[in-house]
Design a protein that fits this description.
Radius of gyration: 27 Å
Number of domains: 3
Number of strands: 0
Order of helices and strands: HHHHHHHHHHHHHHHHHH
Keywords: Repeat
Pfam family, one: PPR
Distance between the termini: 82 Å
Protein name: Pentatricopeptide repeat-containing protein
InterPro entries: PPR_At4g14850-like_plant, PPR_rpt, TPR-like_helical_dom_sf
GO molecular function: RNA binding
Shape: elongated
Length: 307
């Protein structure tokens, strides 16, 4: 029987293509199968760009497979490529191996913004908030540009460790870098300031050009934790009545938690625009506080309004 002979380099190129195609389509087992095919024929991969795809696949496969890929690329010296180092860090971070991710990061000669974002995210995901804050200070010396997700998380890290002075300094950095206008970032800073002083939080809140339901909820929650129920209720009413922002369940339950249910019900009756979330939240509040008669009355009133 005669077999058609295909040049080895053609086979390898085809396997490179298959690895990348399978990765794009999320077929992780196929990615590793094609990678093993390259190893099986005794050819060392010469295209470093296949390693990010292979390591991404390893995040969804047994941990030992990723470790074997790491050993292979070290032997070939591919760890010097930023894209490969970043992929290694991402693999270890997703595997919960923060120490290994940090080892890779420290050994990288060339770090880009992706590198810093990955290692910061890894620390934040593991709850290493103080270390994340320290890393961010280091990163700024390298002109690091954090992504939006990490901006929010960094503010939350400052809040978790009580580093309020550093948090205020970060506020200044955001203004200087032009990232201050992002609503999600402003909301995170707002939460930080509610822990420092509601006076600071109010000032920031009034400076915000765009306020969403999260912004209002943070302020309501801030007043709640500051034991200022009247301000919490007034802010809630202003939110739904004056600005027409639909209250979510969390905001309603926050009001119920600090006031009594009767006060929350009074605030609810003064709301001109009620939605299904506000109805259900107040109903849940009545039930949770064992005010079953009021819950039934509210339910009947809701049915009457809808009919």
């Amino acid at each position: 029987m005669r077999f058609s002979l295909i040049p080895a380099d053609t086979n390898i190129r085809n396997l490179y293509h298959k690895i990348k195609e399978s990765s794009v389509n999320g077929r992780w087992e196929e990615v590793f199968f094609h990678y093993r095919e390259i190893k099986r024929v005794g050819v060392q991969p010469i295209d470093h760009s296949i390693f990010p795809h292979t390591l991404k696949a390893c995040c969804a496969l047994p941990y030992t497979l990723g470790k074997s890929v790491h050993v292979s690329l070290l032997k070939q010296g591919f760890e010097s490529f930023s894209s490969v180092g970043n992929s290694l860090m991402h693999f270890y971070a997703k595997s919960g191996e923060l120490a290994s991710a940090l080892d890779v990061f420290n050994c990288m000669k060339m770090k880009d913004s992706v590198s810093w974002n990955i290692i910061l995210q890894a620390h934040l995901d593991e709850g290493a908030f103080q270390e994340a804050c320290d890393l961010f200070i280091q990163a700024r010396a390298f002109r690091f540009e954090p992504n939006i997700s990490n901006l929010v998380l960094i503010v939350q890290a400052y809040r978790r460790v009580g580093a309020f002075i550093d948090g205020e300094g970060f506020h200044g950095y955001l203004i200087q870098s032009g990232l201050w206008s992002l609503t999600s970032v402003q909301n995170s800073l707002l939460g930080l300031y509610t822990d420092i002083s509601m006076e600071y939080a109010e000032k920031l809140f009034h400076e915000m050009y765009e306020k969403d339901v999260i912004s209002w909820s943070v302020m309501v929650g801030g007043y709640v934790h500051s034991y200022e129920p009247i301000f919490a209720l007034e802010t809630f009413k202003q939110m739904v009545t004056d600005f027409g922002v639909e209250a979510d369940g969390q905001t309603m339950l926050t009001c119920i938690a600090i006031c009594d249910v009767d006060s929350a019900a009074t605030a609810f009756r003064e709301i001109t625009h009620r939605n299904i979330i506000s109805w259900n939240s107040l109903l849940s509040g009545f039930v949770h506080n064992e005010k079953h008669g009021e819950a039934l009355t509210l339910f009947a009133f809701n049915e009457e309004v809808r009919s």
